[in-house]
Amino acid sequence: MIKKIDLPYPINALEPYYSAETLSIHYNILYAGYVDNTNKTEAKLQIARSTGNFENIKCLEKDLSFYGSGAILHQLFFENMGPAIPTSPSIELMNRINMDFGSYDTFKNQFTKASKAVEASGWGLLVWINNFNKLEILQCEKHQNLTLWGCTPLLVLDMWEHSYFLQYKANRQNYINAFWNIINWNIVNKRFNTIKLL
């Protein structure tokens, strides 16, 4: 059974860049729904395993992938934001960004453009790919189809319309621009540091 994380900041802490109303709906309704449905699916799978009845296995596996991926990515998203108190990439992460993207500005531009160009519902992600031994930016369309095998998500941006439409309408660019003001790089740095322990 998975649990909904507690927000590491008050519901209005991301104002004016991310409204309290949007965050409340996003966290208390949409994210909570992913967690609840993941647990319901796990319970159904437990029954299927105990009875040996896998008649609905295709549907259950799809649900587990969809809801479970949504729960994980939303947790990462909420955690990698914070009040607009200046934070920055660690020296080690900044060096790696410069190495893999050429400069921080190039990384920021690529992340912004990639996130804005995500088709339909999806995510923009900065990830570490072990097999490539480098940072990459990925578009995650239909999050259940990108299981993120072989990479560690460091920074994620929810590009589903529910994440921005109430406040920013169809203006994805303004939403992404605002996001840069509330990234908690301390959390991103911590995630980056963990890959050095693998």
Structural features, described:
- This protein has 7 helices and 3 strands, in the order H-H-H-H-E-E-E-H-H-H.
- The protein has 198 residues and is α+β, with helices and mostly antiparallel strands.
- It has 2 domains: 60 residues, Orthogonal Bundle (Helix Hairpins), CATH 1.10.287; 105 residues, Iron/manganese superoxide dismutase, C-terminal domain (minor pseudopilin epsh fold, 3-Layer(bab) Sandwich).
- The chain is globular and about 55 Å long.
- The relative contact order is 0.15.
- The model has no long low-confidence stretch (mean pLDDT 94).
Briefly, what is this?
With 198 residues, this protein is α+β, with helices and mostly antiparallel strands. Helices cover 52% and strands 12% of the residues. It has two domains: 20-79, Helix Hairpins (Orthogonal Bundle), CATH 1.10.287; 91-195, Iron/manganese superoxide dismutase, C-terminal domain (minor pseudopilin epsh fold).
Features:
minor pseudopilin epsh fold, alpha+beta, 3-stranded antiparallel beta sheet, 198 residues, 52% helix, single chain, Helix Hairpins, 7 helices
